[in-house]
Every structure is written in C-alpha cells, then in structure tokens.
Amino acid sequence: MQRSDVYGEGVHLNVVKLNPRQACAIESAAIHNPSSKVFVLFASPRFKNSNSSDPIIDAILSYKNVYLRNLNLWTYAAGTPVYDLLKDGALFKSYYVLSHISDICRYLTLWRWGGTYLDMDVVMLRSMEDVPPNYTGAESNTHLAAGVMNFAHDGFGHEIAEECLLDLQHNFDGSNWGNNGPGVITRVMKRICQTSNIEVMQDNTKRCMGFRVFPIEAFYAIPWPEWSNFFESNLLEETMTRLKNSYVAHVWNKHSTKRQIKTDSNCAYSVLARTHCPRVFKAAGEYF
C-alpha cells in the first residue's frame, strides 16, 4: 500500500499537522518578510487532507508566500559531506534522532539554497529582508546558536555552509544534543573569526571576514533558563522591554512545550502571538 493511500474517512496516513506555536513562527515570518518565500520543509512525506479543513493550516496557507514541501532526506543529502552519516547509520542511532535530523536538514538547506533558517519555536518581530546576508546570533557569551542563521547561496556564504557540513561530517556526536546544531556554527565561526571569545565576535564583521554575529538581544534576549518569563503575566512589561531590540523572540520549545496558555491571557507569548501571528492565534481556539 502506498503512503498516499487514504484510510478511514478520507484521512491520509501522514496528513500534515502543525501546532499553533509552530504555525505562529511561519505566519510571523510571512507577515514581516512579504517579499520573501517562506518554505516549511518536512523530512517525511506529509499530505494535505483535501476532504477536511484544518484551521491552523488554512491560516498559514492564506499567505501567498508560504509553501509546504516534502523532502527525501536520502536524496537531499546525496553527494554532500554528510551523506555518510545516513549511509553508515550514525544519524539514526542518535539519542536525539529528531533533533539531529533537524540539525542536518538546516545546514543542508543553507548549503543547497542559501537564505535564512528559522527555528519553529520563534515569533518574528520585524523584517529581516534588508539585513545583509551571512549572519547568525550569539545565545550567550560562550556559545552561538543555530536557531536563526543566514548564508548567501554563493561566494563566502556558501563556503561557510560547506564548512558547517564538513564539521558535521567530522564531529557528529549522537550522544550530545547540542553538538550538531549550535556546536557546529560555534566551532566554524571560532575558526573563521580566529578567536574563541564569543564577545569579541559580536558585531565584529571585520574580524569575521564579513560574517556577522548578532549580539544576544537580537535573537535570544530571553535566555533558556528564563523561558517561563514568556508565560508569566506579571513579567509582561519586563519581557517586552527586553525584546525591544530583537528581531525574533525565541520561546525555547524544548523546555516550554508543555506549558499551555489561554488565548485570553496577558502574558508576553500571547501578546506577541496576537500581534505577529493574528490569523493563527485566532484559529488556535481556547489554548495557544
């Protein structure tokens, strides 16, 4: 039986599903970057059910610059430095296989096409269409992060993407959650910038050969140990103030995924979502 066969009441085996928070990341990117195409990539086959309506999917597809695409991981990686991680099974033996597939897909996509990668536990707060290519962001004064990255599709940007794939090939570690995502861009930029000092890298494009490392407040103004600040109404004003210079609010899904909020609440996450992903927020119902 083929994967596209229909089961039960016209429901595909692998019908595409996104939760409201994932969809919010997509909508906010589409709203703030109307001249850019926003691609949502699925590493296993997904199908849109034509026989019923999903209000969350309908909300994001109401934007003409949003596209849902399947990719075949094996084909996508073929002919690249990371193909052997699939071929020898190292990727699939990982303790964090889904996270590490995501890591490989983000670097592969930037290597193949260039552009901007965004995590799906973010809310984009303003446009990045006028930001020159080739950048990432510091998460702390000791590490860069891989939640927002941009590489040009050619020239120096493509060289950086190639360096990232080579680093993955040589340093992949299935027992370490962060080694193959933030670890990759941190190691590569230490070599490019010729320093291990993350503070020295920030906004120092001359030292980093034209590559920009944004300061912490650009993408990670609220650090992961303080993820709950997004969900506390009494911290609304403080949290919004800390985000005033940010392009993106990162809500740290790894830690916050089980924390529900009502759509009529007045915490920072609901206020941000109400403003920056209004169609998804409306479609979410009682809880976001």
The secondary-structure class comes to alpha/beta
> Low-confidence parts, pLDDT < 50 over ≥5 residues?
1-12
CATH topology-level name:
Spore Coat Polysaccharide Biosynthesis Protein SpsA, Chain A
Helix content: 25-40%
Please compute the radius of gyration using only Cα atoms.
19 Å
How would you characterize the largest beta sheet? 4 strands, mixed
On the 0-100 scale, what is the average pLDDT?
A: 93
First-last Cα distance: 36 Å
Strand content: 5-15%
Overall outline? globular
**Number of DSSP E strands:** 10
Number of helices: 13
For the record, the CATH class is: Alpha Beta
What is the architecture at the second tier of CATH? Alpha-Beta Complex
**H and E string:** EEHEHEHHHEEEEHHHEHHEHHH
Number of domains: 1
The spatial strand order of the largest sheet comes to 5-8-7-9
What labels would you give this structure?
288 residues; alpha/beta; Spore Coat Polysaccharide Biosynthesis Protein SpsA, Chain A; 4-stranded mixed β-sheet; two-stranded antiparallel sheet; 13 helices; 38% helix; A1-4-GlycosylTfrase_dom; transferase; alpha-1,4-N-acetylgalactosaminyltransferase activity; glycosyltransferase; GlycoTrfase_DXD_sugar-bd_CS
